[in-house]
Amino acid sequence: MKKTINITAALASATCALLHPYASANDMLEGWKVDTSLMYYGETDRVTAVETVIAGQKDFGDERLFTGKIVIDTLTGASATGAVAQLTAQTVSRPSGQGSYTVNAGETPLDNTFKDTRVQVDGQWTQPWSDVSRITTGLHLSTEHDYYSLGFNGSYAHDFYNKNTTLSGGLAYSYDVIKPEGGLPVPFSTKTASTGYSEDYDDDGYIEEDGDDNYANDERSGSSDNKSTIDVLFGLTQVINRRMLMQFNLGVSQINGYSTDPYKVLSIVNDQGLTQSLVYENRPDSRIKTFAFWQTKYALDFGVADFSYRFATDDWKVDSHTFDSRLRINLSDSSYLQPHFRYYNQSAAEFFQPFLMEGQALPEFATADYRLGEMTAYTLGLKYGMELDNGDELSFRLEYYQQSPKNAGFTEPGTLKDVDLYPSVKAVIAQVNYRF
Amino acid sequence: MRHKILKISALLLLIQLAGCANLGVQPWERDLLAKDEMALDSEGNDLGLDDHIYFSKEGTSGGRAFAGGGCGCN
Amino acid sequence: MEIGLTNNEQAAFTMQHKSDHYCGRFYAMASPCELLIDTQDEKLAKQLTSIAQAEVIRIEKKFSRYRTDNLLHQINHSQGQSVIIDDETYRLLQFANTCFELSDGMFDLSSGVLRKAWNFNGSDQLPSPELVSSLLPRVGWQRLRFTSNELIMPADMELDFGGIGKEYAVDCVAKLCNQLAPKLSVVVNFGGDIQVTCPRKKDQSWHIGIESLQGEDLTAQLLHIKAGGLATSGDARRFLLKNGKRYSHILNPNTGYPVEDAPRSVTVAASHCIQAGLLATLALLQGPEAEQFLQNQNVQFWCYR
Fold first, then answer.
1. Is A345:A393 a contact under the CB 8 Å cutoff?
2. Among residues A402, A412, A406, which one has the least CA distance to residue A85?
3. How far is Cα of residue C2 from the mean position of the Cα atoms in its chain?
4. Residues 6 or more apart whose Cβ sits within 8 Å of residue B16
5. Please, which of A65, A348, B30, C222 could form a disulfide with A374 given CB 3.0 to 4.6 Å?
6. Do B28 and C227 touch (CB under 8 A)?
7. Using CA atoms, how far apart are residues C93 and C71, in angstroms rounded to an integer?
């Protein structure tokens, strides 16, 4: 006998063939593990999203695994346009240029026609490459009325030291097409906005105006554009001891192409802080993001502690720190409670400006999108899960998410001092999971 | 100076990797690590939904896996 | 030990309520068989034990070489003619074939004919070299031909599933228990060949005593097991002693003689009982290198010399 050769693996697969003869020839519907979720995300006065996820995993034996996921989400409600609040009511045109709406005094202009349904399909195949390594390939598809994305990825993982250490490397490519309603706006072209006083507010605080009365002069530069993203990811997973597991990831992501949000604008204000006009934003057409991620999981006598930290930095100068922690507390053999806390902090992109000043030269790039401004956010949540008598798992999650944008050192002229340029966004996340 | 720091960090990384040989457990000590809730992706749907929320509401994304492109929510 | 199987077929099992589990016992395959069931539900415990007993009796009936009414008897008396085999037999043959290949011919289910020369009864009666060499040509797994539904074996050969039968039965019973009560921890223990179906509810270990030979003394070691398989292979009381030299009952099918310097007993832990059993047997076949062999397999083991 070849005395140095490890025959355990060969013996294990022979044992599997002996004891589970039909493992690979099973009916297609047999052996699926399915995880379904329904999530509600609601911001006060802004966006509401309902997202459904059906994820399935099928084991084809010999460590060959298929994972598939279908996501359907619907967004309704309003989102911030980037325009600043005013002491008087404002009229803002819709993205399509069809009709306009009025914003109450002191409120941040939102676009209330925001409604979209997105369908996403993912598929992933994993199989062994050798006794100690495996490869994974995946496909990603996402479509909504103004955005299409197609991506694929591949990765390789290699086990060392008795599978206590795993090194992995992966590459992903994604090609996105953006087809905004009403076409692509020309950067810094004027979007119709008029200030005025209005008396007949409807319940939502918006006044509908007929599209015909709107003398939109939005300039459009075409109907669609695209962007491509290349991701490189390196990972190290390490078993520390019988209770502890760690993961380190390093990643670089390069985006080339249209990265501007076609619906976002900036207010041009005068010395008194009064909005003179709204112009479309413009972002660089390339971005290189780098991140480091560390996660550790620890098996406690009564549950599991999970902690992660991520540092991300990019050439737009958005640096962020994210701390995420979950503590699973087993209440009994079949139920658990899991508090969740997340803290997020980011610096502003170098071209972020809450508004533009009248009479000053236009910058090359500018955005007033608060998501690229300085901000702190935290999430507080609680999850309750229970295993049912038939072995299925049912769980509920309720979370509170608050974003607090901050002034990254901009001085506000005139009346802008009296309005809240950095309003907080508060959201509730409610979710039900069923796993069978 | 920068070179030196690079060299030192490379060395530290090597030492840590070599240290990995001494970390870890024997196959029969995996009882706790083998539990479903100890898998790094044990709450796949939660993590996926979270990633999507934060991708569309914040300036950075990714970390656990590919940051990717994927949807027009940002 | 020869078994009066027909008498045992109808024998009832016994059920005992222990502090935190039920223990069902019956006798089959020339061994005491035991099920430790992590439940307080007596009805469930009885149901599992009775299913286990039926499964063991089924396997024993089908593959025992002491019966004249089964498939194995048919194979061993086929006189070189083709015999129709079923799927289960085919899978066992495939498994045995893998083991034969992995062991470079040391694990051979046709080596049972050598017992015509060797009678390991603790005496000093060694067989004559002529007898051993006359039997050697009758050993040879590679001369067997089989497909998924038929087997052709030369007339002078004999098959014996003794080397894997009990471990296979343990795994089959564990599988049945797992199907019937998916998350219930059950210890299937057939004469020291053990499978624990899954961890216990409160994550405690099962404490199981394993008898092994330490020198000339039988010692019991208490093991803590949460899940997985365990098997012991050794010469216990089966050996020959001549001029101070001990001949273990592990025969090398290539020479026809016992493997020299083999450990007295080897216990191996693996994910399945049959895997553990095979690794223990293969380790014994390594003689003096048994420990080295097991170390290379990355499994937990206990060797006694």
1. no
2. A412
3. 16
4. none
5. A348
6. no
7. 13
- Among the residue ranges A136-150, A249-263, A313-327, C5-19, the one predicted with the least confidence is C5-19
Mean residue pLDDT of chain A comes to 85
pLDDT at A192: 65
* B67 and A CB contact within 8 Å: yes
Contact A2 C289 (CB under 8 A): no
SS3 sequence of C64-123? CCCCCCCHHHHHHCCCCCEEECCHHHHHHHHHHHHHHHHCCCCCCCCHHHHHHCCCCCCC
A37 touches chain B (CB under 8 A): yes
Helices and strands in chain A: count of H runs, count of E runs: 1, 28
pLDDT digit string, tens, across residues A367-382: 999 999 999 999 999 9
Instruction: Confirm if C274 and C163 have CB atoms less than 8 A apart.
Output: no
For residues A278-282, give the mean pLDDT.
Answer: 92
Distance from CA of C217 to the nearest CA of A (A): 30
Query: Two tokens at A200?
Result: 């007949």
Question: Chain centroid to CA C117: how far?
Answer: 22
Write the CB contacts of A429 (distance below 8 Å, at least 6 apart in sequence).
A39, A40, A41, A379, A381, A397, A398, A399, A400, A401, B53
- By the 8 A CB rule, do A326 and A298 touch? no
Does the predicted model carry a pTM greater than 0.95?
no
C298 touches chain B (CB under 8 A): yes
- Nearest-CB residue to A312 (from B24, B53, B60): B60
Residue of C nearest to B32 (CA): C203
